[in-house]
Amino acid sequence: MIFEDDYVCISFEDNGIGIKEEYIKKIFDMFFRATDKGEGSGLGLYIVKQTIEKLGGSIEVKSEYGEGTLMTIHLPNLLK
User: Fold this and answer.
1) At 20, is the secondary structure helix, strand, or coil?
2) What's the domain count of the chain?
């Protein structure tokens, strides 16, 4: 977690399979699922993004397919 003057930045990184480039812009769409394998409704990341934006923040995704993903959340710093 990084505190900046106006924002707090929280980053999450993994070394999983990553996200294919053509899916990056779609992962926050309601009901989007990159695969039919496994269970899930495709609502998780949609709800995360909607919540962050309602709080005045943003979320950024960087991913290399086959190497992992980095997600960074920026939220207004209310502690200044």
Assistant:
1) coil
2) 1
The 10s digit of each residue's pLDDT in 4-38 is: 778 999 999 999 999 999 999 999 999 999 887 87
Which residues constitute the domain of residue 16?
2-76
The reported pLDDT for the residue numbered 80 is 64
Residues in contact with 7: Cβ distance below 8 Å, sequence separation at least 6, in sequence order: 57, 74, 75, 76, 77
Q: 3-state DSSP call for residue 21?
A: helix
Look up the CATH number of the domain holding residue 68.
Answer: 3.30.565.10
- Phi, psi for 41 (deg, rounded to 5): -100, -10
Dist. CA 41–CA 39, nearest whole Å: 7
